[in-house]
Amino acid sequence: MDTSIRALSSGASVTTRVACTGNVRVEFLRCRSDAIVQWRIPRPEFALMWVRNKASGTRIMMGGKEAERSEDEAANCWFFPEGIDAEGELKAKSANDCVGVFVDPSFVPAMVKPVLAQPIIGFSNDELGHAFQQLTNELATREEPLPLFTEGWAMQALAYVARATPRLQRRRACGLAPWQLHRAKEAMRSDPSEHLQIAAIAKACKLSSSHFTRAFKVSTGVPPHRWLVEMRVESARELLAKSRVPLAEIAYTCGFADQSHMSRVFGRVVGMSPGAWRREHIVCS
After folding, report:
1. Residue 231: is its pLDDT beyond 70?
2. Same domain, yes or no, for 198 and 254?
3. 249 and 187 share a domain?
4. Does residue 34 sit in the same domain as residue 83?
5. What is the distance between the alpha carbons of residues 59 and 145, in angstroms, rounded to a whole number?
6. What number of helices (H) and strands (E) belong to the chain?
7. What whole-number distance in Å separates Cα of residue 268 and Cα of residue 178?
8. Which of 69, 105, 117, 190 has the fewest CB atoms within 10 Å, counting from its CB?
9. What pTM, to 2 d.p., does this model score?
C-alpha cells in the first residue's frame, strides 16, 4: 500500500504501521533516532498530522507555494481541510513518533465542515496531544486496531480541531503585546539600513516573521516597512522645519543610511526633495 509519510534517516530503526477502514486511514511512523520526516496530503481528504519530539526546520508547501511558518514554537500539529494539495517536511529529534490521519470527506458531518474549512499550519493542543499519545500506544501493539476505535478516534480528533479553530483565529487577529511593539519600534529606529531586517526583529519579539508582520499591522495600522518610512520622514520634516542643520546630519539623526538615501525616500513620500521642502516650510530665523 502506498503511504503518505516517510522518514529519511541514515541507519535509524524505523517502524511503520497503517490502519484502514472504509472512511479513515491512519499512518504511524516510529523512528529510534533523529530523522527527517516527509509527508504528502492526498486530495481531497481531511488530514491531520502530529509529531512527537519535533525539532526546528518545519517546511510546508500548499498548492506549490511555501506556506507561512507557525508562530507557535511548540507547534506539533498540522491540519488540512479537504481539497488541499499539501506536503511537508520536518526534523524530528531523538526517538520520535509521527502520525497522519486521513479522513474521507463524506465521513465528516456537513454541519462541521464550515468550521474545518481553513488549514492550520502549526499549532499545539493539550487535548489533541493526549489523544495522539493514546493512538500511538494503540498502534504500537501487535494487534490490529478495531475499525470502531480508528473511526471514533478520527472524529474525536477533528472535534478537537473544530473547537480550537476559533481560538486560533482570534489569536491570529491579535496585535503585538506592548513590550513587543516597544521592542520592535526601538529596533527599527536603530536600524539605518535601507532593507528592514524583519526576521531579526521578529525573533527579538519571539515571533515568526509572518506573524510579526501581521500583528504589527494590527497594532499600528500599517506594515512595518511603511511605519519605519513614515517615522523617518516625519522626523526629517520636523528637523527641516525647525533648524538649519545640514541635510547629511538630519539623514543620520533620522536613521537614514546617508543623505542620498534620505533624499530618495523623502522625495518618494512627500513629492519633493528635502531641500525644496525646507525652503517652503522652515520656521526658524
Report:
1. yes
2. no
3. no
4. yes
5. 31
6. 9, 11
7. 31
8. 190
9. 0.62
Q: Are 160 and 128 in contact (CB under 8 A)?
A: yes
CATH of residue 84's domain is 2.60.120
> Residues 125-177: pLDDT tens digits?
888 988 998 898 888 887 888 899 999 999 999 999 998 888 777 666 678 88
Regarding whether 142 and 91 lie in a shared domain, the answer is yes
Q: What are the tens digits of pLDDT across the range 176-224?
A: 888 888 999 988 888 766 677 888 999 888 888 888 888 898 888 889 9
Q: Are residues 245 and 106 in the same domain?
A: no
Question: Which grid cell sits at 91?
Answer: 526534523
Q: How many CB atoms within 10 Å of residue 86? A: 22
- What is the spatial order of strands in the sheet that 86-92 belongs to? 5-8, 35-41, 86-92, 59-62, 65-66
19 in the same domain as 115: yes
Q: How many distinct structural domains can be found in the chain?
A: 3
Domain that includes residue 211, residue range: 178-221
Place of cell 472512511: 23
DSSP element (H, E) containing 219: helix 209-220
Question: Domain check: are 211 and 119 in the same one?
Answer: no
pLDDT per position as a tens digit, 41-84: 877 899 999 988 776 668 888 877 888 766 566 788 899 999 88
Q: Which CA distances in Å does 204 have to 5, 69, 76, 201, 215? A: 34, 16, 22, 5, 14
